[in-house]
Here is the input.
Amino acid sequence: MANNGSWEEFFASHLPPTDFEDNRSLLKEFCERHALQGNKIVLVTSGGTTVPLEHNTVRFVDNFSAGTRGSASAEYFLEHGYAVIFMHRQKSLEPFTRLFSGQKLLDMLDIQERGPNTTITVKPDSVDVLAPILVRYKAAHAAGAILYVSFTTVSDYFWLLRAACECLANLGPRALLYLAAAVSDFYIPKDKVPTHKMQSESGAPVIQLHLVPKMLAPLVNLWVPAAYVVSFKLETDESLLVPKAKAALEKYKHKVVVANLLQTRHNRVVLVTKNATQEIALNRGDILSGADIEMAIVAAIVSSHEEHMGGAAPAPAR
Amino acid sequence: MANNGSWEEFFASHLPPTDFEDNRSLLKEFCERHALQGNKIVLVTSGGTTVPLEHNTVRFVDNFSAGTRGSASAEYFLEHGYAVIFMHRQKSLEPFTRLFSGQKLLDMLDIQERGPNTTITVKPDSVDVLAPILVRYKAAHAAGAILYVSFTTVSDYFWLLRAACECLANLGPRALLYLAAAVSDFYIPKDKVPTHKMQSESGAPVIQLHLVPKMLAPLVNLWVPAAYVVSFKLETDESLLVPKAKAALEKYKHKVVVANLLQTRHNRVVLVTKNATQEIALNRGDILSGADIEMAIVAAIVSSHEEHMGGAAPAPAR
Here is the structure.
């Protein structure tokens, strides 16, 4: 059985992603601007991370996550007046566009072919659906209220996460971390990853996975000690749901675990804090009307973040 | 080292996907209609397959493929008059929409807010880009010339592939199979997959992979013996490229291997047949103008498919 190394070793042995410095500048500018404006900032992480099985990556281990929860939540945080860093798996669902696949959008369009005066319009019956989303999308972008950064591998994710924390630390308790990404627990150390594609002629390989260090520990204790940190736990076994959430809070000392079962995650979650558990569930009417549970999760988290800010030390002088 | 089982064993031990009967009906209707109209049909497979590591799937092994080659090729086959079965990994790139992410499409839109008379139009400078694609998209859909079916796991893929072959067999040499999907070579047999999410507390797991049976063998020999079959080989090591393609043709007796290197796959491929190798490459000008190599690959395949049909037995009487 392989041990997990320390988080320091992980950063020492994995190079930052190629676009790291660009993203770090974007994060810095975004956090400084919103800190000056007195805004709250939420970091929403979303989608799954990959673990490459080869250096020239043809195969990888992936974590199941379309990005549904993170992308929907980001929209609701914007509505609550937060500036949003949306740190997501490349090609996973994004706020606003999450409800429209490419084909759905093309099907909404009518073309009036008139040579150089050709026009394309959205069909009247689709305007009702699209207009409110488009208005909110344009408002968020015009206000510079959302920053998109993306990752693919678990190593990319950790580099970006730490860089975001470095910028968010200055916001003290006004920073909220909403860590909804599905992060690999396991990885293959760089020196054990083959350079070329594994050849099936040499038989089926055995993959020895290693444990990923738990980044929540340095994050809570060192990187953003004053922030309000929310983590997520996805399980498939109901009996482990709350006990594992409690154990995580005990171990990492953060504020909330949003616990959910793979099978029912779109309809029910349990918010677990040190002293309480609160179930949030959609009823049949909600489900039939197409409501999503993220609206209620975000409302609950925003409200407990308010309490955290009220009771905490004031934000650093600006 | 684990052996690969036979393809019969694979089907006997993996249940069909839940929407299998619906897809089989769609495939049957599509092939019968186009056979009656005397059309050629191409089956384009696209995107990567997954191998679940748990029954309640949280983690899986994935094959790298965005679906770029398959989705672009499908468009060119439509232009050459083929009916297209586009069998793709769920959420991978699709013909027509492949060039427009959701955000890109939203950014093309202007909204004129007038309450109940609100309209949304495509910005004039985006009309030039979007109009020709939208026209081709609408024409293909109006003509019923494209059928979309999707898979996620390698087992879904094989069930759909065999079902498509059963319908395509009736087209004889007029059927073209363009197998561009990145199919797993390895999998974990159903009885070795744990039911619940692997717990990191129990240490890092060792994953013993098994070889997937080579479906190309029964496909060429039994399922569609008269069809024109094109397979793809992605390698990372140049020295293996042509030898492995030749070996595959020798072994499976199909018509063409499109061989490409991961690093240069968007600019260069080698078409390997029993008696010849033909390199197709984009030059600097092509690359700068944003041309894609799939146009040339499809043109070459269409032309050799014509020869195959000319020299082959006539299509079954209709």
Q: What stands out?
A: Chain B is about 35% helix and 20% strand. Residues 124-142 of chain B form the longest helix (19 residues).
